[in-house]
Protein 1
Amino acid sequence: MTDEKKRPKLILEPDQRKQLVNVQRRLMIKSGLTLGAVSMLTGCNMQDGDDVDKVLWAMSRWNDRVQSWLFSGQKLAQTYSADQITKPFRFNAYYPEYNVPEIDIPNYRLEVSGKVEKKAPWTLQQLQQLPQSSQITRLICIEGWSAIGQWSGVPLKTFLQHVGADLTCKYVGFKCDDRYYSSIDMATALHPQTILALDFGGKPLPPDFGYPLRLRMPTKLGFKNAKHIGAIFVTDTYPGGYWEDQGYNWYSGI
Ligand SMILES: Nc1nc2c(c(=O)[nH]1)N[C@H]1C(S)=C(S)[C@@H](COP(=O)(O)O)O[C@H]1N2
Ligand SMILES: [Mo]
C-alpha cells in the first residue's frame, strides 16, 4: 500500500465541499494550521463528512473569537479621496440585478426589536434627522473584487444609543427586505465607521445598492454589509446570516 492509499479519504457532500472551500481556505491559510493541528485542536480526525463539518464549524467559531479579540474597536479602516471612487460601482447580491426588491419607500419603516428600550419603528425622515457621518472606503467582496465608494448615514452607535439598546449584548442582527439577513458583534456595531447608510455618492441609496437603508462598515467583508434593511435587533442569541449559515466565517473582519 502506498501512503496515498492509506490516507483517509474525504468524501464530501456538495454543501460540505463549499464549506471546506469557504472556511478552510480563510482559516487554515490565515492561521497557518495544518490538518494535523486542526484534528488535535478539535478532537476530530476528519475521516468522515460529519467530522469535517464539525471541524469546520468549530474552527470558524474559534476564528470568530480570535478575530474579535484582535479587533481594536477604534482603529480606523483606510479611507480614500473622491477621485479614487470606483465608477461604475459594482452590484452584488445572491440574485441577479433584475430581481432587486421593490420597496414601498413612502411607507417604509425601520423596525427595532430585542434588547432595546424604544421599539417604535423609524421613518426615513427620522433617520435623516439623526447626526450623519460620511466615508469614502473600499467594499471588499469575498468573491475576489473590491470597489471604492462614498456612503453617508447614521453611525450605528448613534442609532443604538437613541433606541436605548443594551450595549452589553453580544450581537446586532439585520433583517432585509429581500429575505437576506446578517449579524455583527457589538464591538463592530459601535465602531465609528459602522454606519446605517442612507446615501451613496451624495444621493439617496439607489435600489441596486441597498435602498433605502444599508449597513456599511469598512472593517468587514462585503457580504456582512446588509442592504435593504427592514429590521434591526439586539440580542445575546447568535443570529447567524444568509451566507454565514452556509459556511462563510461569521466574523469576516478585514
Ligand atoms: N440584502 C442584501 N444585502 C447584501 C447582499 C444581498 O444579496 N442582499 N449581498 C452582499 C454582498 S455578497 C456584497 S459583496 C454586497 C454588495 O454590495 P453592492 O451591491 O453595493 O456592491 O452586499 C451585501 N449585502
Ligand atoms: Mo460579496
Note: DSSP finds seven helices and nine strands in the chain.
Protein 2
Amino acid sequence: MEIPFAESWKIKMVEPIRKSTREEREQWIKEAHYNVFQLKSEQVYIDLITDSGTNAMSDRQWAAMMMGDESYAGARSFFRLKDTIKQLTGFDYVIPTHQGRAAENVLFSYLVKEGDIVPGNSHFDTTKGHIEGRKATALDCTVDEAKDTQLEVPFKGNVDPAKLEKALAEHANKIPFIIVTITNNTAGGQPVSMQNLREVRAIADKYNKPVVFDSARFAENAYFIKTREEGYKDKTIKEIVKEMFSLADGMTMSAKKDAVVNMGGFIATRRQDWYDGAKGYCVQFEGYLTYGGMNGRDMEALATGLDENTEFDNLETRIKQVEYLAKRLDEFGIPYQRPAGGHAIFVDADKVLTNVPKEEFPAQTLTIELYLEAGIRGCEIGYILADRDPVTRENRFNGLDLLRLAIPRRVYTNNHMDVIAVALKNVYDRRNEINHGVRIKWEAPLMRHFTVQLERI
Ligand SMILES: *Cc1c(COP(=O)(O)O)cnc(C)c1O
C-alpha cells in the first residue's frame, strides 16, 4: 500500500479555540453590522478571513527572534535580511517596510503620478488603492479564462499578452511600469507561469518599461511552476524563484504571506535609481532605511521564514492542505474557482446563491451564512471589495463574486478542513431558501470592505 501524505512538521505549541452557539453568533454578527471584519476573534471558531500574518512560525523562526539586533541604524538583522533577499531574488537593493501596502506606498510615491496607467494581472485591493489614491488607473489585463471559475487551466493567474500589448501601444507614455501579482490573489490565488512572466518581460522590453512583481505568494507560485509547468519538475524551488525574479526590475512584498511571519514587508530592486528615489519615502513614512517599520527580531524571523518557505516540503504540505479541502468540496458538488489555488479556496457565490441578486451581494451573504452555520469566518472577495468606479461611482459588478476561505500556514489540521467542508455543505443544501442578501448602510470611499456596515434584507 502506498504511504499516505502527511505534514512535513509536527506541533510544539497549541492555542485553544472556542465553539459558540448559533444564537450567540446571530447576536455577534448583527452587532458587527454583518461585516466579519468587525467580529472579535473570540467570536470565531475557525478563522479563514486571511492567510496574511496569521501563520504559525517555526521553532527556528522563534529562535532567530532572540538574535534580533535592535540598533536604530545598521542593524545586523537588516543585513542578514538583505543578504537572504539578494540570494533568493538577485536584487541588490532592499527597503524594509512594516507590511506589503507600506512597500507599495513607498515605491509608488516615487513611481506613480496623477493620470498614470498601471497595467498588470488583477491588482490586489491595496495595490489598486495606492494607484487610484494617486488619481491613476489600475488596468486589469488578466486572461479571460480567470473569469470562468469552472475552467481547469493550470495558470489562470496569467497576464493576457494581447491586452497588455494593446495597453502599451495606446498609452505607453502614461505607463510607469507593469505590475504582475504572483500568485494572482484576486483571481483566486491562481499562479502565473514562467512562460507568461517571460512574455510580459518581452513586451516590457519592447516598450522599454520596467516590471514590478507584487510578490506576496511568490513561493507558492514557484511550487505551481515546478509541479505544473513543463521543464521545471527537477528544479528546486529556490532555482525557480531566482529565475522568476530575473524577469523583474523590482518587487513589493507582503512578508505576512510567503515569508510565514506575522508582520513585515519590503521592496527589493536591481535599480539604484528606484532605491534612491524611494528611500526618502521610507524614512518619511516607515522609519530609517535599516529597519523601515520592523523590529530587528522581525527581520530575523522574516529572513528565516523566507529561507524555510522556499523549500519544497514546506510548500507541499501547505498546498496539499488546500487541495484536501477542495476535494471535500468536490464530494458535495460545491462550485469554487478551479483548480484550487495556492492559499485559499474561492467559492463561487454567484453559482451557489442563485436567488440572491447581485445588488444584494451574494458572496457577502454566503460569508454571513457560513459564519452563522459553524463560526467559520471567511471573507468576501467580490462586489463589495471591488469598490465603486472612481469616475461613475457605480458598484462594479463585472468581476467575480467569491467567498474566500484563506488557509493560514501551519495553523489548522485536516480535521478543521472537514468541519469547514461540512458546514459549507449544510449552507449549500439550503441554498434555495436563501432569497435575499444585504444592503449597504454606510461605506468608505476606498477599500470599503474593511469598514462597511450592512443590514440584512
Ligand atoms: C497582502 C497583499 C498585499 C498587501 O500586503 P499587506 O501586508 O497586507 O499590507 C499586496 N499584494 C498582495 C498580492 C497581497 O496578497
Note: The first helix runs from residue 22 to 31.
